[in-house]
Amino acid sequence: MMSVNTQAVTNRSTAGARLSKSPTRLAVERFMKNKMAIASVVVLLIIVVLCFGAPLFTHWSPTIQDLANTDSPPSALHWLGTDDNGTDYWARDLYGGRVDLMIGFFDMVIVMLISIILGGLAGYYGGWVDSVIMRVVDFMFNFPFLLLVIVLQSILNNTSVPLLILIIGFTAWPAPTRMIRGLFMTLREAEYVTAARISGAGAWRIILRHMLPASLGPIVVNSTLLMAGMVGAEAALTLIGFGVKPPTASWGAVLNSSMDYFTLSTEPYAWVPPALFITLTILCINFIGDGLRDAFDPSFEK
Amino acid sequence: MLTYIIRRLLGMIPMLIAISIFTFLMMHLAPGNAIDAMINPRIKDLAQVQKTLEAQNGLNLPLPVQYLHWLWNVLHGNFGFSFSQHQPVSSLLGPAIENTLILAILAEILILIIGIPIGIMQARRPYSRLDYSTSIVSFVFFSVPYFIFAIFLMYVFAIHWPIFPAQNAVGTGPNSGSLIDHIYHALLPAISIALTSNTVYSRYTRGSMLDVSRQDYVRTARAKGLQEGQVFRKHVFRNAMVPIVTQFGFDIGGLIGGAVILEGLFTYQGMGLLTINAVSQRDYPVIMATTLLIAIGVLIGNLVADIMYAIVDPRVQYN
Questions:
Q1: Which of chain A's residues have a Cβ under 8 Å away from the Cβ of B260?
Q2: A96 and A239 in contact (C-beta within 8 Å)?
Q3: Which of B31, B160, B261 has its CB closest to that of A157?
Q4: Helix (H, G, I), strand (E, B) or coil at A82
Q5: Does A264 touch chain B (CB under 8 A)?
Q6: A278 vs B294: CB contact, 8 Å cut-off?
């Protein structure tokens, strides 16, 4: 209560200064004040630098086998030891992170593109376009996401990362599509959309130039959460032997290779780091998403 | 109510047909067929034998006819024959469905036991220190993928202190196959699901209870001089449970197919593991059967959610 009152007072006293700031600027300012979100950005950046600058932090390649030192514990030569084939765990963790982050990023882009197009069309036109798209969404919802990915992979005989990204991307779109359709359906009734339509703007112009910017906040928030989900999906799939195929390294693949009794019980240096990387990445992305939500929608302010 | 349920059941039919066509086509597009898997490639007159077998099994018929044949068999409980396990698919499905249901129900009970009390506690003192701290812990738990919890739990409670089994859905010995044995084996995977998923319920409960506690009838109840505890139990809690019940129905549907990863990790012999094994052995009749049944499970779960919503909320008119 207290904070709301002071907020109102400062609002009134600095009304002139506040009015001159754009909504985006205000959102950025609110985001910068969120300590958890900023800390998450820093941690996530460190992880990204570690993964994409991997050659700077390890001399080993994720696939080269050091046959003189197979299954070795952590040492000066191999910081986190090696697996049964003599590949370096630290190198596999770092290079593997690239695959996870790439799957997270590209699948987020693919899924958001599909969702904006389909959700936008359904929400803008309504009517039969909406019913057709939404029936397909309802249909897809009957198949659990990870199960469908596994089955599609077996049918398409997949072994490559790009194909995996496509399969995940073309399976994960129903939920965000439904979200964006909901957003656009409420926006369709807005006065400025009517104004744009009266002044002769076409459907795509209204969708892309008027409705999309207005729904940017929820879309950005959902994209970050989606990216976290996609990183988790890769790890989950690869953990049970689907997803990324050997010898490609990924966090899920390192976990997968540690899932035997001996490694699990005696070599925590094999499976704790990838588990930590996965958890930290997802946690940071979620905290950033949470910070963005608060930044874009001040009504959530605590 | 009865007419509503009947109408919803009839409304499911087009979706069921769509699901069956999709499953059938998906498997039809898959490389290889049953004949390739069954005959020895070094046999004399390979092409001739293949052609005869295809004709005998109706694989040379037009696609729609093949689909109707398959559908007819499925409706009679005949899902074909598993290449890899050498037995009828229908005999594999029974125990798998049973194990998956045990895991789903156990996980759902744990989720409710953990999630709803946390939500109630937070809603009783909103914006307090307790509310904030539990909310942050919930958020962190929600962000940790359930398979990380599963590996951690497996390490602590199955390997470091071998209290629980790390594998299988049933054990060996005199108690093997009893309900207690099943629950004992399903407990670790169920806890892994519950640790992350309870957050959904605690957040829903908190939000829903805060919404309801601002309603006029709650103020009326207070004004009548009812004790705070009674107001919460009789007026706030019961009404706040309406959206929770819906979520519960969706969850039951989702858990039937959603535990694929955990079933794989714990080699827990449910529908998920059956599918995983079938996929890695390209055992298409099994994949078709499990995909079809899981999709139907989700569909029924959603129907149950809607019906439960109609039952608990008398304001909803479905006619």
A1: 144, 146-147, 150, 240
A2: no
A3: B31
A4: strand
A5: yes
A6: no
Judge: B298–A290 Cβ closer than 8 Å, yes or no. no
Which candidate from A155, A240, A286 shows the least CB-CB separation from B30? A155
Domain coordinates in residue numbering, chain B: 89-312
Burial class (CB in 10 A: 0-12, 13-18, 19+), A174: buried
Using DSSP's 3-state secondary structure scheme, residue A76 falls into coil
Q: How far is B315 from chain A (nearest CA, A)?
A: 24
As a residue count, chain B comes to 319
ipTM: 0.81
Query: A240, B151: Cβ pair inside 8 Å?
Result: no
**What average pLDDT does chain B have?**
83
Do the chains contact at A235 and B15, CB–CB below 8 Å? no
Task: Note whether B279 contacts A275, CB cutoff 8 Å.
Answer: no
Which of A164, A187, A176, A110 is CA-nearest to residue A137? A176
Whether A259 and B29 lie within 8 Å, measured CB to CB:
no
Return the CATH fold of B89-312. MetI-like fold (1.10.3720)
Q: Indicate the helix (H) or strand (E) that contains A168.
A: helix A161-169
Across the interface, do B151 and A151 touch by the CB < 8 Å criterion? Answer: no
Whether A12 has its CB under 8 Å from any CB of chain B: the answer is: no
Q: Distance of CA B248 to CAs A159, A193, B2, B107, B255, Å?
A: 37, 38, 21, 12, 10
* Contact (Cβ atoms closer than 8 angstroms) between residue A231 and residue A285: yes
Instruction: Tell me, yes or no, if the pTM score tops 0.90.
Output: no
Alpha carbon distance B287, A151 (integer Å): 8
A225: nearest CA in chain B? Answer: B143
Q: Are B316 and B243 in contact (CB under 8 A)?
A: no
| Residue A114 and residue A122 in contact, taking contact as beta carbons nearer than 8 Å | no
> What distance in Å separates the CA atoms of residue A86 and residue A93, rounded to the nearest whole number?
14
Strand partners, A82: A88
Write out pLDDT tens, residues A79-94.
778 877 778 888 888 8
pLDDT at B154 over 60: yes
**B251 → chain A, closest CA residue:** A144
| Dihedral of the alpha carbons of B136, B253, A223, A147, in degrees to the nearest 10 | 120
**Token pair listed for A106:** 């590209």
Residues 6+ apart with CB under 8 A from A143: B257, B291, B294, B295, B298
Q: pLDDT tens digits for chain A (302 residues)? A: 344 444 444 444 444 455 577 777 888 888 888 888 899 999 999 999 998 887 888 877 887 777 777 777 887 777 778 877 778 888 888 898 899 999 999 999 999 999 999 998 898 888 899 999 998 998 888 888 888 888 888 888 777 888 889 999 989 999 899 999 988 888 888 888 889 889 988 888 888 888 888 888 888 888 998 999 999 989 998 888 888 887 888 898 888 888 877 787 888 888 889 999 999 999 999 999 888 888 887 554 44
* Whole-number Å distance between alpha carbons of A149 and A15: 52
Contact B166, A263 (CB under 8 A): no
Residues of B in contact with A157 (CB under 8 A): 31
Interface of A with B in 139-168 (CB under 8 A): 139, 141-144, 146-147, 150-155, 157
